[in-house]
Amino acid sequence: MTRPFTGRHMTAILIGFFAIVLAVNITMARFAIGTFSGTVVDNSYVASQKFNGWLAAARKQKTFGWTAQVSHDPSRHALVSVDAPGAVARAIARHPLGRAADIPMRFVPVDAWHLRSVQALPPGRWTLQITVGRGGREMRLMEIVR
């Protein structure tokens, strides 16, 4: 014998459905707030005004006649390979979500073409903003280390 479908059944189904939707929304909102600081740039209008200058600087870097590449070793030291002997580098390691303080990094030469950071990066994801200089010219690079 089957029981008839009543208004109480429909009410229970609707309440259950919306309770699940509400629970999922609250959970996702808590994850979103807990993992992202909400600031990509402090002022998007000012950043948009500087964009053309950033593009011009990138084009200028290509005229230097030398290149640099960034990587990291298993011990999480940053490595810079430059096809210009005698180059120097400095960097700032930034946590992409701002949860940890910025880390200034120094580099020492391994040989004429390679530089290695003095300190290793802590665990986690970091954005390295590196400046490589030689002969009064500076090249800016960015690398994400996971």
What this model shows, in words?
- With 146 residues, this protein is α+β, with helices and mostly antiparallel strands.
- It folds into 2 domains: 7-38; 65-145, Sandwich (Immunoglobulin-like).
- 32% of the residues lie in helices and 33% in strands.
- It has 2 helices and 7 strands.
- It has helices spanning 7-35, 44-61, and strands at 68-72, 78-82, 88-94, 103-111, 114-117, 126-134, 137-145.
- The protein has a 7-stranded antiparallel sheet, with no helix packed on it.
- Strand 1 (68-72) and strand 2 form a beta hairpin.
Helix proportion:
25-40%
Summarize the biggest pleated sheet. Answer: 7 strands, antiparallel
Strand order of the largest sheet: 1-2-5-4-3-6-7
**What's the helix count?**
2
CATH homologous superfamily classification of the largest domain: Macroglobulin (MG2) domain
CATH class of the largest domain, named: Mainly Beta
- Overall SS class: alpha+beta
Poorly predicted runs are: none
> What's the total count of β strands?
7
Corresponding CATH architecture of the largest domain: Sandwich
Please report the distance between the alpha carbons of the first and last residues: 61 Å
Shape: elongated
The proportion of residues in beta strands is: 25-35%
Number of domains: 2
